[in-house]
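Try this one yourself first.
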């Protein structure tokens, strides 16, 4: 009750609490009013505050944010006729109205809240079933399937184009299953979309969308030994673990800094390496439940982390500082360790990935080159010219390896997929299709099965290329 003895501050505080109680009741969200008030105030402060230089890379946010009702733009719906668009998109991108809002599922706290007309039981069942079978197939070698020439044998069918999320895709990958094709994509709005390509039940188109984050989903990591556990990191400073069996998105790490990339150790499902803030690499061990080590590896943000498939102690990091560094984890003991090898570009490096055989390293830079480092100590370094200027509204190109050490794949500005031959070190051909209607900026190759390639766009679409 407000009394004359109360100060102005106390009266204002009681009034704020009353308003927040009303808001919580209307949204049916079970959360303390004080936590929601703090979250709202910090969110407003972040929007009004000018962006700092990348050196700090710090963001102000609540410790465990609660996602409430989302705007039309976040839900992938077109704006009202009287309202201007909140964000321009690439001219060739598909309209947000193509993305059905009925599939939207929100995350409240750390649990799924189904907002769709159909349940996600089909997706959960498919992933769990495929995960059980995958545990029996770990000894399999990568499927080859006879002679395969990606320049000749890859094609895009009309039915293999799907709008998976509502925003610009910044991360995409295949789940590591042998007998089922599931593609997962994260966008800049915090959405995580699953496309179960093999789904054939009822009216479902196999697409399921969740909202585990409030900002760009900058990384997705799934270990082949534990494919039912999906890790995501985001610019909101959170790392979440999607436990499909439990049906939860558990927060396992929270930071005041942006998280740019994530990668699991190939020989240990309990360890996670992630890039936080301006140039720091951190190690988190699930057994201890905390980040146990921090190394300052670069002067600016680390865009990608990748392990050598043939030498799990060897790791490569790419950075906006223009450097790619190769590290030996066995001697990565001090805060600023020495790298085994350095690959220098003139401008920011978007990615650095080892080839499947571990003998080569492909790098992609803003200086309009794709680098190929090879040899025993990666001393043989050549640069291939490639237009990497995607502009502001399209995710940067990142060259990936296919299913052997011979070919590199990346998008181009002509709505095609370029294939670079690592042996001849030239762009040998481009994959065009009448069904590829926008620029495929981020790509993923299936980790086990040859001839499955996903190309993701700024409009939320995924183009799934397969063998003829």
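Now uncover the answer:
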């Amino acid at each position: 009750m407000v009394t004359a003895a109360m100060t102005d501050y106390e009266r204002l505080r009681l009034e704020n609490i009353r308003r927040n109680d009303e808001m919580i009741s209307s949204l049916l969200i079970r959360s303390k009013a004080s936590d929601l008030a703090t979250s709202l105030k910090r969110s407003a402060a972040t929007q009004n505050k000018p962006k700092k230089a990348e050196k700090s890379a710090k963001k102000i946010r609540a410790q465990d944010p609660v996602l409430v009702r989302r705007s039309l733009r976040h839900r992938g719906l077109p704006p009202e006729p009287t309202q201007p668009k909140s964000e321009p998109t690439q001219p060739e991108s598909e309209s947000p109205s193509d993305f059905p809002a009925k599939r939207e599922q929100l995350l409240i706290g750390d649990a799924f809240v189904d907002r769709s007309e159909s349940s996600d039981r089909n997706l959960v069942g498919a992933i769990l079933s495929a995960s059980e079978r995958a545990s029996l197939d770990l000894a399999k070698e990568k499927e080859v399937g006879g002679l395969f020439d990606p320049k000749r044998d890859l094609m895009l069918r009309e039915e293999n184009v799907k709008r998976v999320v509502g925003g610009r895709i910044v991360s995409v990958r295949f789940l590591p299953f042998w007998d089922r094709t599931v593609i997962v994509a994260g966008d800049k709005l915090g959405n995580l979309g699953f496309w179960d390509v093999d789904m054939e039940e009822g009216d479902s188109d196999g697409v399921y969308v969740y909202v585990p984050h409030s900002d760009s989903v900058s990384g997705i990591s799934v270990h082949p030994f534990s494919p039912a556990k999906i890790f995501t990191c985001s610019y909101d400073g959170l790392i979440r673990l999607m436990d499909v069996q439990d049906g939860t998105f558990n927060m396992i790490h929270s930071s005041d800094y942006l998280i740019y990339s994530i990668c699991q150790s190939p020989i240990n499902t309990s360890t996670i390496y992630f890039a936080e803030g301006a140039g720091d690499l951190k190690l988190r061990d699930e057994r201890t439940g905390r980040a146990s080590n921090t190394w300052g590896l670069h002067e600016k943000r680390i865009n990608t982390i990748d392990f050598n498939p043939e030498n799990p102690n060897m790791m490569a990091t790419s950075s906006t500082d223009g450097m790619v560094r190769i590290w030996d984890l066995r001697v990565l003991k001090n805060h600023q360790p020495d790298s085994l090898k350095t690959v220098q570009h003139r401008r920011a490096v978007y990615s650095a990935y080892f080839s499947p055989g571990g003998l080569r390293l492909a790098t992609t830079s803003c200086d309009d080159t794709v680098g190929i480092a090879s040899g025993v100590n990666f001393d043989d370094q050549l640069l291939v010219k490639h237009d990497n200027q995607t502009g502001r509204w399209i995710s940067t190109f990142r060259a990936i390896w296919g299913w052997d050490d011979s070919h590199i794949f990346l998008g181009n500005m002509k709505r095609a997929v370029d294939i670079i031959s690592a042996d001849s070190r030239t762009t040998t051909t481009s994959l065009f299709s009448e069904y590829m209607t926008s620029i495929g900026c981020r790509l993923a190759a299936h980790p086990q099965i040859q001839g499955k390639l996903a190309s993701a766009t700024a409009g939320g679409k995924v183009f799934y290329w397969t063998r003829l």
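Discussion: Residues 27-56, 60-75, 79-104, 111-118 have pLDDT under 50 and may be disordered. The CA atoms of residues 279 and 299 lie 5 Å apart.
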